[in-house]
Design brief:
The complex is a heterodimer of chains A (277) and B (208). Chain A contains eleven helices and no strands. Chain A is an all-alpha fold and 277 residues long. Chain A has one domain. Chain A starts with 16 loop residues before the first helix and ends with a helix. With 208 residues, chain B is mainly alpha-helical. The two termini of chain B are 28 Å apart. The chains are: A mainly alpha (277), B mainly alpha (208).
């Protein structure tokens, strides 16, 4: 892990935030894990900002737009699509750090390393339907607004069907995490999080009808295919970010069960120290 | 559903009483892992949102929903419901037998639950085939879209239920690894499937 000092570690400075950050950067043995966690937090917030506010591709538009309306849709978001997805392409590499941090949790479990490796591979693949294909398709549409409207319709469908409709990789990723959590004996995550992974995986199936319907609740902008799924996804993401933070605080870099937090009824000096930090 | 039970320090266990001190409140617990109840509550919320969307859409197109609903065979829905209710009964008997250490009875009831689950799956596939044969598919109209969606997502939950029953059988079979908590956790999942079906049955087949 991080290069901790060999001498006595000074107290965490009180007062300015910069001094606290500097202390953690220099002395915190969990520095890399915290970098991973903050990368996740910043990325998901940025992801929301870019997709919902700047590019304005979420909530998704109607799948039933006529070709002329689709051309207008691209025109209305011209700069948002170009600049928004330019930032997406730049920060997309952060997913490597995020996936590594999540795979680390599986390495810390008592289960086979195959779980962590499977998770890494499946989520490396997930960046394609999860953001890159849509980014490329929307940028290509925005860059050449004078194309044949039929071609613009093709790009529009390609962008949204790839983003909203291809959830297979996320389904398998959630199931891998679920199995790892349920089989783990090191108490890295609570078992209920394993079951929550199953809930998340099941909602990934629900988007499949988006390939068939252009209108209604099962279309890619529908109440069931998008709104309910998004509510589940936001809940799931918030939960795993919170649990991941707790896991890092509890981490003792050992191989056995993770110590519990003092607040959970078990006093472990190392964990208590981390909580104090 | 396996009932919520309560426990308190035994009167003939002075050590336990001493440990509990003057505390007189009853310690409540739920069957199986409490973690599974998070799944139950979360799935109940997700399905409630599906049902809400269904009811709203039904209110907006009442005539269409009524006409399409008339093509469903209520007897099939009743049969499905009875089969799943009986399967819930057998899985509850499995839990009870496992608690009492009657391995053979517990296994028999677990296999019976699987059998009832299988009967449900077959009858559901036959019902789908009949509807499709009559020209009512997933895209026929909004009612049938909901019908296939809700029954299919429930079908998927039931398939996962077979994995849960498999885990229960695996646990019951060996005294070395037997975990009553896991058996009850699997039974809780199975009861949830049954509970969700009863709501789906009421909405799709009965509600007018």
């Amino acid at each position: 892990m991080s290069a901790a000092t060999t001498g006595a570690v000074p107290e965490v400075p009180s007062g300015s935030l910069i001094r606290k950050i500097a202390w953690h950067w220099r002395y915190d043995e969990k520095r890399e894990l915290w970098i991973g966690w903050w990368t996740l937090v910043v990325f998901y917030n940025l992801y929301g900002l870019l997709f919902f506010v700047i590019a304005r591709t979420q909530p998704p538009p109607k799948p039933s737009l006529a070709p002329s309306e689709i051309v207008q849709w691209f025109d209305n978001r011209h700069y948002g699509l170009l600049y928004g997805y330019a930032i997406v392409f730049i920060v997309g590499g952060a997913t490597a750090i995020m996936n590594a941090t999540l795979a680390y949790t599986m390495r810390r479990m008592s289960v086979s390393r195959a779980f962590a490796y499977s998770y890494l591979v499946i989520y490396a693949l997930a960046t394609l339907p999860g953001m890159l294909i849509m980014g490329v398709a929307c940028t290509v549409g925005a860059m050449r607004p004078d194309r044949d409207p039929e071609l613009m319709s093709w790009l529009y469908d390609f962008a949204f069907l790839s983003f909203e409709g291809t959830m297979g990789v996320f389904l398998i990723g959630s199931l891998v995490w679920m199995l790892a959590v349920l089989l783990d004996r090191n108490r890295v995550f609570p078992k209920w999080f394993g079951y929550l992974n199953l809930c998340n995986a099941l909602t990934e199936v629900v988007v499949a009808p988006a390939w068939i319907f252009k209108r209604g609740v099962f279309a890619w902008d529908g109440a069931i295919a998008w709104w309910i799924n998004m509510a589940v996804f936001v809940t799931y993401t918030s939960v795993f970010l919170t649990l991941l933070r707790r896991m890092i605080v509890r981490e003792d870099f050992g191989t056995g069960p993770l110590p519990e937090l003092e607040s959970d009824g078990a006093l472990e000096p190392a964990a208590a120290l981390e909580e104090a930090r | 559903m396996t009932p919520v039970a309560s426990a308190e320090p035994r009167a003939d266990a002075p050590d336990e009483r001493a440990a509990a001190g003057e505390r007189t409140e009853r310690v409540r617990f739920v069957p199986g892992q409490p973690d599974m109840w998070v799944f139950v509550l979360f799935e109940a919320l997700v399905f409630t949102s599906y049902f809400t969307v269904y009811v709203v859409r039904r209110t907006q197109s009442a005539e269409l929903f009524l006409q399409s609903q008339a093509h469903l065979d209520l007897r099939v829905g009743v049969f499905n419901t009875l089969v799943l209710l009986v399967s819930s009964w057998s899985v509850a008997r499995c839990v009870q037998a496992a608690r009492e250490g009657s391995v053979r009875t517990a296994l028999t009831n677990a296999y019976l639950t699987m059998l009832f689950g299988f009967v449900f799956l077959v009858s559901k596939v036959l019902e789908w085939a009949t509807e499709i044969d009559q020209g009512f598919s997933f895209t026929t109209d909004e009612f049938f879209s909901f019908y296939y969606f809700l029954t299919a997502i429930h079908f998927l939950h039931l398939l996962i239920g077979f994995v849960a029953l498999g885990v229960a059988v695996y646990q019951i079979k060996s005294p070395a690894r037997r975990s009553q908590e896991l058996v009850e956790t699997c039974a809780t999942y199975w009861h949830t499937i049954d509970f969700l079906w009863v709501l789906i049955f009421a909405l799709l087949y009965v509600m007018r």
